[in-house]
Design goal:
single chain; mainly beta; five-stranded mixed beta sheet; 5 helices; 6% helix; 56% strand; globular
């Protein structure tokens, strides 16, 4: 079945090309319809290289989705990108409602704990979103979303070793307008979106957007009666734009997200050894820790542009962000305090970026300086009932990051271009980390528990380090024709080092030394462009990445609790291919297809195993006191990295009842993938297919629109994360977290 689906996706790509060829051959003379725009694909302008370019001209693997495309996909939030973009995983973190986990081409970071760096950068209007909490962005007030695959260290910095996701909001312009959209759907989904903007004179415009997302749970907490997998989110955006003349532009923007959805405690994949607790429906739980959860994030940014001449523009981006999270995860999924984790996270950051953008007929480029001062802190308890203790882990990481960068393209001929870029980064980090054992399986004093003395200090240290890296980029592109562009590129990515916030210095003494940066050297060749009088746009890419000093978080159950370590595991090789295409078959029919393949294999994986734990190479042996480094490359694989991903959709447009009707069926496929580096059959996800269908109708003039959507129509059950504590000490707690079930919704939108 899996092979059939792969072949079907590839056959779909070939069918699209063949059908388009046939249509092009039977159509009117070249350029006749294309010139009128009736049967040509839209040309999307992106800012992947911090300057405006068409997709065809960018020597980078970029997927771009306009607001119209996202609406046809019924994209509620950016996790939809996992369905539509090759070789990418974008999903809600395990045990969370709005914390983001992203992987591109096998590179990312699953652990959202403070102090750890993500491997995929998230940007809202060129402002870096420093922490993943509250970063599952709902799609509203959006112009487009760009996905840049492969290292983007030259232009975007240290935490884009896998790639970058750019969320670009709408500019206000100089005309008044707005819209209201209401949605009702399955599980009592009730959404409201209100947007508006207006000029107020003298080159000043103001705008705002408000979104409310409410939904009952897909399941229930059978212990407390609360909704489980519900949604209760409010989001705000306020902005003001000032353009006194053609040479000056300023934008002040504020955003805030409040997520009061109940905590997600997950699903027991095995029955409990004590208490008789059975395996329930995928969305139900019997967790007893509680239902309080609150995530608040907000940011303020000021962007200024000065067009100094026809060729030169100066740009400044100043931003501040902060967030607070109070959450609970009951890892055993029962009323017993076997493995309960209440947690608090706080973060804040300030950044300043200065750019000079130059463009003439021969040379185009950007030069810049970047500074960020950030702090991430938190504390969480591990309440271990069978051990009779509560373990308090906490600390703070402060980072000052400086960078200078450039990226310049030169036209050697009308068709041959060479681009050269580089970034020099200096990260200075300070860390305070503690791990205390308290007697009694109740909350520690840090989480509001009964004040009591520390039973044992396992970790308590301060550390300071400076990390420096130079990340170059080189590409050459050649236009085969006016519509076809081919390129080759090399780029280096970098993610800075740090310290394990869960580290237990008693079990793993080396934790106080921290871990080193990781790097990747990536090579790519691509072909992209338009065919058949722009009836088809396509992009292909083949890549090879050599990944070194990978930072891997591992948690191992030992007699005294759970031992955590972050290791620079070793090295790996990743290679693959990607294909994307948009086709306009006729005035009424269009389609898209995307296919990705990746082969990810560890060359070496040196894992530190603490004393008392089983030897992973030979489980019948126990690691001696003091621990031991073991090479487990042959046993481990990449997490969140399906070998195959694919997507195909068709859109039919036609006049019905005096208005335009659009109908879009979409199918997406994800191959088998692991939740962690170590294979875990109870948690690892088998290949699955999602089927969606959307339809909309708008009268002539488009002042209002009626839409319906069906998501996951075959009602697939698929895991997006999990935890493995399947031993007697933790009552056989193997926990899975699941993606949404089948849902339906209907919306009405009114523009004014």
């Amino acid at each position: 079945m899996k092979t059939m689906l792969k072949l079907a996706l590839l056959a779909g790509a070939a069918w699209s090309a063949a059908a388009t060829t046939a249509i092009a051959q039977d159509a009117a003379p070249a350029g006749a319809d294309a010139a009128s725009g009736q049967v040509a694909v839209d040309e999307l302008v992106v800012t992947a290289r911090r300057r405006e370019e068409t997709l065809k001209d960018v020597p980078i693997a970029v997927s771009a989705f306009s607001a119209e495309t996202l609406e046809r996909q019924a994209a509620n939030d950016i996790t939809t990108l996992s369905q539509t973009t090759p070789n990418i995983t974008v999903q809600t973190a395990r045990g969370s409602n709005s914390t983001l986990i992203s992987y591109i081409r096998g590179i990312g970071q699953q652990d959202p704990l403070w102090g750890y760096e993500p491997g995929v950068g998230l940007y809202v209007d060129d402002v870096y979103v420093y922490r993943p909490q509250g970063a599952v962005l709902d799609v509203f007030d959006v112009s487009r979303i760009e996905v840049l695959r492969g290292p983007q260290g030259t232009l975007y910095g240290r935490n884009t070793i896998g790639g970058a996701i750019k969320y670009v909001t709408n500019r206000l312009g100089d005309e008044a307008g707005g819209k209201i959209r209401g949605t009702y759907g399955s599980y009592n989904q009730t959404d409201l979106l209100v947007e508006g903007h207006t000029p107020v004179g003298g080159g000043l415009s103001v705008g705002s957007a408000y979104a409310l997302y409410k939904r009952d749970g897909y399941g229930a907490n059978l212990t407390t009666g609360a909704e489980h997998y519900d949604k209760d989110v409010q989001a705000y955006r306020l902005s003001a734009e000032y353009k006194p003349n053609d040479d000056l532009f300023f934008r002040l923007a504020y955003d805030r997200v409040e997520d009061d959805s109940n905590p997600r405690h997950g699903h027991r994949e095995l029955p409990a050894l004590v208490g008789g607790y059975k395996v329930l429906d995928a969305y139900d739980t019997q967790a007893g820790l509680g239902d309080k959860n609150a995530v608040k994030t907000e940011g303020l940014s000021l962007t200024g542009e000065y067009h100094a001449s026809e060729f030169l523009t100066f740009k400044s981006i100043t931003a501040g962000r902060k967030g607070h999270t109070q959450t609970l995860i009951d890892f055993d999924g029962t009323p017993l305090p076997t493995l309960d984790v209440p947690a608090t996270y706080d973060d804040r950051s300030f950044s300043q970026e200065l750019q000079a953008v130059y463009s003439d007929d021969t040379v185009q480029g950007v030069f810049g300086l970047y500074y960020m001062n950030s702090q991430a802190s938190g504390e969480f308890d591990t309440i271990a009932g069978n051990l009779g203790v509560s373990i308090a882990d906490g600390g703070k990481v402060s980072t000052q990051s400086f960078a200078a960068f450039f990226d310049v393209s030169a036209n050697f001929t009308d068709r041959f271009k060479v681009s050269l870029g580089a970034r020099a980064t200096r990260d200075h980090k300070r860390s305070n980390t503690f791990r205390f054992f308290y007697l009694g399986a109740t909350r520690s004093p840090y989480q509001g528990g009964t004040p009591r003395p520390i039973l044992q200090v396992r970790t308590n240290y301060s550390a300071e380090k400076t990390f420096e890296e130079f990340t170059p980029r080189l590409s050459a592109s050649y236009e085969l024709t006016d519509d076809l562009n081919t390129y080759v590129s090399y780029s280096k990515g970098y993610k800075s080092g740090g310290w394990d916030m869960r580290g237990d210095a008693f079990l793993t003494p080396q934790t106080v030394e921290g871990y080193d940066p990781e790097t990747v050297n990536a090579y790519e060749v691509g072909l992209k462009g338009n065919l058949f009088d722009r009836r088809v746009s396509f992009a292909t890419a083949a890549f090879l990445s050599k990944y070194k000093d990978q930072q891997v978080t591992t948690q191992v159950v030992v007699p005294s609790g759970i031992a955590s370590s972050v290791d620079n595991a070793g090295a790996s090789t990743l290679y693959g291919v990607e294909f994307e295409a948009n086709a306009r078959f006729s005035q009424h029919l269009s389609g898209t297809v995307a296919v990705g393949y990746i082969h990810a294999k560890y060359d070496t994986f040196s894992r530190f195993v603490p004393g008392g734990a089983p030897n992973p190479v030979n489980p019948s042996q126990t690691i001696p006191a003091g621990g031991q480094v073991v090479n487990v490359a042959d046993l481990y694989g990449f997490q969140n990295t399906p070998e195959w991903t694919g997507n195909a959709s068709l859109t039919w447009r036609g006049t019905v009842a005096g208005g335009e009707l659009q109908v879009t069926p979409m199918v997406s496929y994800r191959d088998d993938y692991q939740q962690f580096e170590q294979p875990l059959p109870l948690l690892d996800q088998k290949a699955f297919t999602l089927v969606d269908l959307t339809a909309s109708w708008a009268p002539e003039g488009g002042r209002y629109k009626i839409s319906v959507a069906g998501k996951n129509l075959t009602d697939e059950r698929y895991r997006t994360g999990g935890y493995n504590f399947g031993v007697a000490t933790y009552n056989n707690s193997v926990i899975g977290f699941y993606g949404p079930p089948r849902t339906y919704s209907a919306s009405i939108e009114v523009k004014f």
